[in-house]
Amino acid sequence: MRPARPPITPALVAVSALAAAHVAYTDPTAPRPADPVGADLCAAGKILRFADGPALPLPATEGAGAPASQTDVLHNDLSVTVDPAAGSLTGANTMTIRSLADGLTEVGVRISDQFSLPQVLVDGAAAPWTRLSPTTIRVTLPTPMNTGDVFSLTVAYSGPGVAAGFGSITFGTHAGTPIFSTLSETWYAYTWWPHKDDGQNDNRDKATADIRVTAPDWMTIASNGVLQSETPLAGGLKETHWAATSPMTTYLLSMAGTNYTRFGAVWSHAGGSMPLDFLIYPENDTPTNRNALLQIIPMLDVFSALYGPYPFLNEKYGVYQFNFPGGMEHQTMSGQGSFGQSLSAHELAHQWWGDEVTCADWSNIWLNEGFATYSEALWQEFRPGGSVAGLHAAMAARRPTVFLSSTFIPNPVNPNRIFNTHYTYRKGAWILHMLRHAIGDQAFFDSLAAYRAAHAGGGATTDDFRAAVESVVGEPMDWFFQEWVFEPGAPWYEHAAIERVVGGQRYAEVMIRQASPPTYPIYTMPIDLGVTTDAGLSTVIVRNDAAAEHFLIPLDGPLQSVELDPDSWVLTEDVTAVAFAEGPPKIVAVTPAPGSTAPVIDDVTITFQAPVTISQADVTLTGPGGAAAFSFVYDDAAQTATITPAGTLTPGQWTVTLADTVVSAISGLALDGETNAAPPAGPMGGDGEPGGAAVFTFTIARPADLNGDGVVNGADISFILSAWGPCPIPGPCPEDLNGDGAVNGADITFVLSDWG
Q1: Alpha helices, DSSP H only, in 534-681?
Q2: Among 5, 29, 236, 696, which residue has the least CB neighbours within 10 Å?
Q3: pTM for this entry
Q4: Which CATH number fits domain 587-700: 3.40.50.1820, 3.90.780.10, 2.40.110.10, 2.60.40.1220?
């Protein structure tokens, strides 16, 4: 019996995660692993920063004025002057917008009411606006716009930057030196720059950007895209201009500035080379940290081989340091608080999964974070010196321990829930790990390629990812995604195995039960069984899709053990070895072989893996003329039923049906007989559960149908011609149809008389 578990509540999960974050990332004496799990750094850091920030309002769940779907922002031209000493911002953003609707009269813009708005312009002319909430204004267009019309909208702003979320805009210090940085995820960009109101839960509108940051001239500025210029200005200031030429969702636009030490590198790839840009604090500029950052070069090689070319080859990839315990995947320029391999791999992988292909909404955030977390494990598998053992060790370190909620987030309004390490990061990674094993490596990576090709430069949902997988494997995959993404929990497996010997052949009968809580689904999963006999170890894959199933596996020697999921490809909450419970009867042998053809069949035998209760009433024999009479004998010792036809069976197809009124003499459970089960749970079929008739067919050949194709025609004459002459002694001589000891014209006449 399992030990009782203490009750776990969502509140307890949130408190424990936050407490762990505070201990791990604020206590300098707390022990840390050499390479902390990147997903945990990311999740705990975000939860910690969110908890430490002020409580600012969430934007409305739909855009102000016209719905977000009625406009497409093509470009953001953001200029901002940062005063680190005052913690204030002054600037303007000019949005180039295309109308996606006829009669568009207004546009929603997010900008916090902490800022004054001295100017709002549409196509260079002043435009009226109304504040709707602390986060949002509505701008009225001077004239209605129709589908395809392009216009500019400029919002100038000035005021103090006040951080929300995970530190959307922060002013702090490192080693006594001022630093400012931004981290807008999820929807907090409005606290430091004006942008289209795209709905609290919609990330699909992406735009290119020019980002001009004016700050003290001793500061080096990190941002997205390619550095265009650094221009000295009066008053000890400097303008730094970055240009992001690849479309980018709102929350990924970023800036940071301090007295960074910059060093670079070049990554050579199949199509040329790309610059790498690293900005770290001078006090942290050590050979160890530089070497850690340079590990990104082989990471780029590995992820490009697995996922396809790096998405922003015409721009760059870089890392800048900021006062954040985890990391943030700002497009082309990730912010990191440390430089461990797992965190660097996590943030780099986001450039494919999160930046180029972005979760369409926060309900589907696992498509960002689960993919990046699994990439940490893939790095351990495919890095120089990596191994499959490294993959499995990494996944073991990323196994969730709380299963109360689904990975999909029905109501994504709480960042603590959105960035929960158990559901979004760890279980998200395990979903991919299990999918890979379920469909195979080739189909898995082909599915990632199909997903990327369909949604690069845009946003995607779980259903979009499922559709990409289905396009590759050619079959529905809702059975997998429904239970793992949209349902809570993970399986609790109970298992046992015994050896059976029938007619000299050994079998392992394996019992698998799902003893999960009633709020969990019944999981459908292919499960590896490690079967060890005296002859060695082999792996057998069974498909478990019911609360209790029995599988029968032929053996090559005496059974030693059966291990459930020996390589841990399936995420489980509990696995327990229990005593074996007798299951349903299974058929292990039938003669004649199902589907075979023979000239004469005297009787049919059916052998079971264990004793059964069976009678003649449980069996039918039908042929071309309908039901046929037969005698019936069951040998309990041999566990074999024999069906003997009352007369000679005429040529044609014959069917033996064994009803599921046959039951186990031990358990009383009904026959597991389905001969069309896919995959079968035994050597002669069955789906692993009680119930289901067994149906077998065989054919009595027509003598003249020499090739057994069911038709007497010219092909059979060819057989006669190839065997022309006296029959060999001893025979056989099947072409001698009239039995005169020779193959000749008389046999051709026999064929012609039976033609058709």
Answers
A1: none
A2: 29
A3: 0.89
A4: 2.60.40.1220
